[in-house]
Amino acid sequence: TSAVLELRNVTKTYRVKQGLFGKAKPLTAVNDVSLSLPRGEVLGLVGESGCGKSTLAKILLGLEAPSLGQVMVDGQEITAQDRLSLARRIQPIFQDPYSSLNPRKSIYDIVSLPLRVHGIGDKAHWDKEVRRILDIVGLPARVMNTYPSQMSGGQRQRVAIARALIMKPEIVICDEPTSALDVSVQSQILNLLGDLRSEFGLTYLFISHDLAVVEHLATRVAVMYLGRIVEESDVAGLFDDARHPYTQALLKSVLTPEPGLGVPDTQLGMAYPNPIDPPSGCQFHPRCPMAGAHCKSVAPRPVPTSHGHVECHLHDPDSPMYDPKVA
Ligand code: SF4
Ligand code: MG
């Protein structure tokens, strides 16, 4: 399968001021990430809040330019000038449908907006398309004349999905699309996204802090930590045979009685590091139960596994920490 969307060695650095009189320091939100999204697949991107996954989404949507590296669509590099055409092919669905839907606009205005912005068709066409797409996402046509405040959270997320799909995109970037919803509504929306994917041959990047949600939909999973992809795997390999100690900790937190609440710090020993002052060597070492002295000074490199790749000294045959029992 060919990659419809690809990141090559993408880095995004911001300059961030700490405190009123603080000096601006660089913050590397995305650190040399290479990812490919094959057509028709769902790549789950998992990590805790602050790991850089939303920045990655903005780069893919053309809302942010990478500091280094390339974004490729169908093997062609995407530049700033291509953003408008990119927007036709790549659409977002964001986390909180309430804040991403303009409360003063009717559902009709919200859903038809992408067509109007891109100058596609006339009023008759918009009417037809809004009816068609509302039906596809399971909403009655009469909601056209209502406002977001008159809808439930699940209905609002259906509106956000309708707005994304009205452009007939090939790729949908879903950034925590169900995190603001009740658990019962979450599964309805996940089922809808799954149905839409097979019906329209969509390709998804599905961003979540919750591995349980990702397992539902993803075909591949990339685990992100402090801006790096520390493990990537097909979904079965990740759930059966996770290699990175961080992925293993995330999986344990999925198995706790209250999934969906993110990663309890009890599993990982301490809070997420401040990305402005990341740990040396392997950036996971302060929280890693397997860490050795070597991990504090030397960053691991990506090494292949049977189902993807991982960045951890325990799995690198060239590392003094290589452990064939673990790897
Ligand atoms: Fe843990 Fe060391 Fe592996 Fe990093 S390289 S994940 S600190 S064992
Ligand atoms: Mg986020």
For the largest beta sheet, what order do the strands appear in spatially?
Answer: 6-7-8-3-9-10-12-11
Give the helix/strand class.
Answer: alpha/beta
Let me know the average pLDDT: 89
Distance between the termini: 28 Å
Cα shape: globular
CATH topology: Rossmann fold
Any idea how many domains?
1
Task: Using brief descriptors, characterize the structure shown.
12 strands; single chain; binds magnesium ion; binds iron/sulfur cluster; ATP-binding; ATP hydrolysis activity; 12 helices; 8-stranded mixed beta sheet; nucleotide-binding; Rossmann fold; alpha/beta; 327 residues
Task: Please explain how this structure is put together.
- By secondary structure, the protein is α/β, with parallel strands linked by helices.
- The protein has twelve helices and twelve strands.
- An eight-stranded mixed β-sheet has the order 6-7-8-3-9-10-12-11, with helices on both faces. The chain has a four-stranded antiparallel β-sheet with strand order 2-1-4-5, with helices on one face.
- The longest helix is centred in the middle third of the chain and has 18 residues.
- It is globular, with a radius of gyration of 21 Å.
- The site of iron/sulfur cluster has 13 residues, from loops.
